[in-house]
Amino acid sequence: MDIPFKYLDMNIGGNPRSLTFWMPIIDKIKFRLSVWKGKLISMTGRLCLIKSVFNFISLFYLSFFKALASVCKFKAPAGACKINTKIHAKFIWEWGCEGKKIACVAWDKVCSPVEEGGLGVKHVGKFNTTLFAKWLWRLGTEEEGVWRNIIVSWYDSWWEMMGSMSVRKASSWWRDLSKIDDSVD
């Protein structure tokens, strides 16, 4: 097989720090949130569609690859998060309308939980950090698992390596994971 290749519709061996790596996900989200859907459904319907489309299409990628600029050396993945947020905001406020509409509420408020007066839309960057941090949590709490055995065999003393960038055999995935504490708000 040539690298990169697709497995479970995810690019394996690609560079998650490049915008081209994230474009298939962005294109799928754009396709699912097509213009005709925005014209024919209510605001509540738009919110439900955004929540379901975003959660199910991007969940696998966001849980495995870090996409924030605070961890990534290049700005492209942050651009992917920004593009994704822009698509969501446009779908809520102006999809299917002619001309530019003004947002009624700040995006941070839209991303707030419903209990706090928000609309419950997930913040792309925070959602990515949470999903990615789950790997670190699982590594510290689970005793068994094939993926854990691979990590432990590759990085013998993984706990001591956390935060250490001097290890040459560390992959970009591991380096991003070891910096996860620095990016949590």
Structure overview:
With 185 residues, the protein is mainly alpha-helical. It has two domains: 5-123; 130-183, no CATH class. Helix content is 57%, strand content 3%. The chain is built from ten helices and two strands. It has helices spanning 19-32, 35-40, 43-64, 76-93, 107-110, 124-141, 146-154, 158-161, 172-178, 180-183, and strands spanning 5-7, 10-12. The protein has a two-stranded antiparallel sheet. Helix 1 runs antiparallel to helix 3 (43-64). The longest helix has 22 residues, at 43-64. 20% of the residues are buried. The model is unreliable at 69-75 (pLDDT under 50).
Provide a quick synopsis of the model.
Helices cover 57% and strands 3% of the residues. The protein is mainly alpha-helical.
Radius of gyration from CA coordinates: 18 Å
Low-confidence stretches: 69-75
* Share of helical residues: 55-70%
What summary fits the major beta sheet?
2 strands, antiparallel
- Please report the number of helical segments: 10
Which class of secondary structure composition applies to the elements? mainly alpha
* Average residue pLDDT: 75
**Intertermini distance:** 40 Å
Shape: elongated
Extended strand count: 2
Oligomerization state of this entry? single chain
Total tally of structural domains: 2
Q: Give me the strand/helix succession.
A: EEHHHHHHHHHH
Strand order of the largest sheet: 1-2
Relative strand content: under 5%
